[in-house]
Amino acid sequence: VYIRQLPQEDLAERLKAVLDELRGRREEPDAPPESIDTEYLRTIAPLVQDRLKTLNGEEVWNLCAFFFLETPAYPEKLPLPKGMGSETARTALEATATALEPLEPFDVDSLEDTLRPLAEKLSLKTGELFGAIRVAVTGRTAAPPLFDTLAVLGRERVLHRLRHTIGLLA
User: Fold this and answer.
1) What is the separation of C-alpha 102 from the centre of its chain, rounded to a whole number of angstroms?
2) What is the spatial distance between Cα 159 and Cα 68, in angstroms, rounded to a whole number?
C-alpha cells in the first residue's frame, strides 16, 4: 500500500537506490547497468508501481530487468500463447516488426492503433498477438501493460527483440 501511494518521482529515486545497491551483489551480464538514468526510471516507475510488493533488490530487478538488458533472458522453450505454434508466432512477430518499423510517433496510442487491427488482419485474437509480442520483448508472459512497455523501450530495442525472437523461432 505504501509503495502504491508513493509519488512516482519518489519511487523512481528509491528504485535507483535499490538498483545501485544491487549492482554490487550481482554477476554480469545479469546485473543492473553501471549508470541508471533517473529520467528513464521515471518512465518505468508508473508501470511497475502496482506490481511491487517490496523494495527488495531482487524483486525490483526481477520486475525491471528487461527494461535495462540489451536482450532479456528467454526461457529455453518460449512460453507462447495457448494454441499458438512457433510458425504462427514467427509470422505474427514478423508482421509486427514490419508494422512497427515506420511507426511515428512510437507512443502508446500509435502502438495500440497499429497492433489491434494487425491482430484482426492476421486472424488472431488480440491476446494471442499481444502475448507473443510480450514474450518476444520482455522474455516473460506477465509484464507491465504492453503498449506502455513498448513505448518506454523504444522502437530500436523493440525491433531488435522482435527480430531476435523471430530468429529463436526459426
Assistant:
1) 20
2) 15
Which amino acid type is present at position 88? T
Closest by Cα among 15, 1, 27, 28 to 57: 15
- Cα angle 23, 71, 93; round to 5: 150
User: What would the grid cell of residue 156 be?
Assistant: 530500436
Separation between Cα atoms, residue 132 and residue 17, nearest integer Å: 33
**Cβ contacts of residue 149 below 8 Å, gap of 6+?**
47, 134, 137, 138, 143
User: Could you read off the pLDDT of 15-52 as tens digits, one per residue?
Assistant: 999 998 888 776 666 778 888 888 999 999 999 999 99
Q: Which three three-digit cell numbers place residue 54?
A: 517490496
With CA atoms as reference, report the closest residue to 11 among 37, 36, 48. 48
CA distances from 15 to 4, 6, 168 (A): 13, 12, 32
